[in-house]
Amino acid sequence: MKKFKLGIDIGTTRVKAMVVDSENKIVSFAAEEIKLHARDDFVEQDPEEIWGSVVKVIRKAISKEYIKKGLSGLSLSTQGGTLILIDREGNNLRPAISWMDTRAIKENENLIKEHGAEYFYRITGWVPYKTCLPLSQLIWIYKNEPEVFRNIHKCHFVDSYIIYRLTGKEFMDYTNAAITMLFNIQNKMWDEELLKLARIKAEQLPALIPSGRRIDIVKEDIARILDIPSPVFVYSGGHDQYCSALGAFVNKPGDVLLSTGTAWVILAITNQPIFSPKFEFSPGPHVIEGLWGALASVPYGGASYDWFLKNILLNKLTYKEIEELVNQAKGEMPVFRPFFSKGNKSASFSKLKLSHNAGHFLKAIMEGIALEVRRKLSSMKKSGIKIKNLKIVGGCARSSLWLEVISQVLALPFSIPPTLETASLGASLLVEEG
User: Fold this and answer.
1) Selection from 43, 26, 124 nearest residue 303 by Cα
2) Cα 182 to Cα 41: distance, rounded to the nearest angstrom
3) The pLDDT of residue 185
4) What confidence tens digit (pLDDT) does each residue in 28-74 have?
5) Can you tell me the distance from the alpha carbon of 1 to that of 27, in angstroms, rounded to the nearest whole number?
């Protein structure tokens, strides 16, 4: 009987599932939306909605009877840094706090003031002022939701939470642990000093294992819900960017992945952890043992472009009309600085002229984002990271207009993988042959 593997990519706003055969050829694909609940600095998700989307997408992807019968295992590619808290009965204590949430800015400032950025960066690969990850989120909960904090039995994250729902076991892979700011990336253990700052114990966190390890079979009651025959084994997965790198075959030093979504993410592969003197990228373990990555982002890369289309152009233009506008934009261009470019929290335009039109602004946004990518790549090079082969995935890989701008600005050869759904493909590659 033919065997199949299932890779599930749980992103910030979508869940995708891909079934591949023993030759890693794509057999089926499905997707479901996940809601973000945002207000002010709060960005949250409902863990039950995440789980519900996972259930739906699995059922869709394996709907053919021959796939169900031949399904041998599954693995996960997941968003990192989203905190899910459960009590002793396994109930959710509150909505999940997204990695996009910035409520803990003051907690970040206090951590930097008391310990310095270098302290956190050398242990975790991250610094508190760049983003509000679970370390500062837990401190915020301790101060502002003491009843919730007292009832924390387990601190879960998207990967460990879904593994828990599937198997009843509590495990987390190294690549996802590295996005929590609670994990020592050098010794691959929860860091006791950081746990003290968060006022939690190692027993309240998932057990740590490398990617691609067999955990257990899907529980019988869950297998019935998913409509799959037992046994189907669950394997430890990876952070979505590292799984995407695996699926794009970005797997040796000198290889670089450029992922172009809501945020643009650069992942350069190294054979050891490399640190930035100015904290401009985050080192972390790869899903492939023995390899490392350096992760940098343009946080609202794609979002900036989409914002202009939606709020300024009111989505009234076709793609062809947009392309014509951009191609007709001549002369001196406006300058666009993306969000968080060189530390600026706000995006901005400068060098504006009365002759500028929508095409000029769109091209300026595209060039500004590409220039920020170039700056980050330059920073990586200065730190000793080799930049040889670039692969582009995500929305921009489908756009000849974007690819032309990227090519001009980066002046670096690049290629597009055969499939752009590299994260779910990467997750499926972490499943052992059945």
Assistant:
1) 43
2) 22
3) 98
4) 999 999 999 989 899 999 999 999 999 999 999 999 999 999 999 99
5) 15
Given this chain, do its domains 4-242+423-429 and 252-416 carry the same CATH topology? yes
H helix or E strand, kind and range, residue 105: helix 105-115
Which tokens hold the place of 217? 């079979």
Between CA 402 and CA 39 the distance in angstroms is 31
Model pTM? 0.93
The C-alpha angle 62, 3, 429, rounded to 5 degrees, equals 85
Domain ranges of the chain: 4-242+423-429, 252-416
Tokens 């519900």 locate to 52
Query: Among 21-25, 179-183, 235-239, 309-313, which is the least confidently predicted range?
Result: 309-313
Distance between CA atoms of residues 97 and 37, nearest Å: 10
Kindly state the greatest CA–CA separation across the chain: 68
Cα(165)–Cα(163) distance, rounded to whole angstroms?
Answer: 5
CATH number belonging to the domain at 4-242+423-429, selected among 3.30.470.20, 3.30.420.40, 3.40.50.360, 3.40.718.10: 3.30.420.40
Do 406 and 370 contact (CB within 8 A), yes or no?
Answer: yes
What's at 33, amino acid-wise? E
Where are the strands (E) in 218-311, listed by range? 233-239, 255-260, 264-270, 282-285, 292-298
CA distance 102 to 111: 15
DSSP state of 98: P
Going by DSSP bridges, is the β-strand pair 233-239/71-78 parallel, antiparallel, or unpaired?
parallel
Name the token pair of 27: 């057999």
Classify strands 71-78 and 4-10 as parallel, antiparallel or unpaired. parallel
- Please state which CATH class domain 252-416 belongs to: alpha beta
End-to-end Cα spacing for the chain = 11
Handedness of CA 39, 43, 46, 51 (dihedral sign): positive
Q: Please give, one letter per residue, the 3-state secondary structure of 168-237.
A: CCCEEEHHHHCCCCCEECCCCEECHHHHHHHCCCHHHCCEEECCCCEEEECCHHHHHHHCCCCCCEEEEE
Token look-up 């929305």 returns 395
Tell me if 248 sits within 8 A of 419, measured CB to CB.
Answer: no
